[in-house]
Design a protein that fits this description.
Elements lengths: L2 E12 L10 E6 L2 E7 L4 E12 L2 E5 L11 E8 L7 E9 L5 H8 L4 E7 L10 E3 L4 E6 L4 E3 L6
Length: 157
């Protein structure tokens, strides 16, 4: 039997590498569009929901913000520029793998009204926007709830 539950997710993009004069925007991709892009000049939070399905075969993720095939699901943080012909022309995107979420945090958020939080270092080691597949330590998962605050080591803090 598969049990599907909607959960709140907050993506925090920390310290993007641009200044306002660059005009660069960023946002979370939903389908083929970037939802509500904001200037990529300071740390930004993007709040949305995804579905998590628990079954005998394991965990799967679904929803308009979830990309990829079963077993290889991910989120995109997209970087782009405004254009007179369309609101957002993408030039790069960061891939955040959902399989990297520790199972302890998924269990906690599934049994709680908490928020799953992904902190992403938005600037890479070369001073450019984070792009390609982003791994730890540039991505940190944690849960915020009324009851607990846990990080990806599943240690109460």
């Amino acid at each position: 039997m598969t049990v599907t539950r909607s959960l709140k997710l907050k993506l925090i993009a920390i310290d993007p590498p641009f200044e306002i004069a660059h005009g660069v925007l960023f946002g979370v991709q939903a389908g083929r569009e970037v939802e509500d892009p904001v200037p990529a000049v300071e740390t930004a939070e993007f709040d949305f929901e995804i579905d998590i399905a628990h079954a005998n075969a394991g965990v799967d993720f679904k929803g308009s913000h979830v990309n990829g095939r079963k077993g290889d699901r991910f989120l995109y943080l997209s970087w782009g520029l405004p254009d007179p012909t369309e609101p957002f022309v993408m030039f790069a995107r960061a891939k955040i793998k959902l399989a990297d979420i520790p199972s302890e945090l998924l269990e906690l958020v599934a049994n709680d009204d908490g928020v799953l939080v992904c902190e992403l270092q938005a600037t890479n080691k070369k001073g450019q926007p984070a792009s390609g597949t982003i791994n730890s330590p540039a991505v940190i998962w944690r849960v915020e709830s009324q009851k607990h605050v846990l990080d990806e080591t599943a240690t109460a803090i």
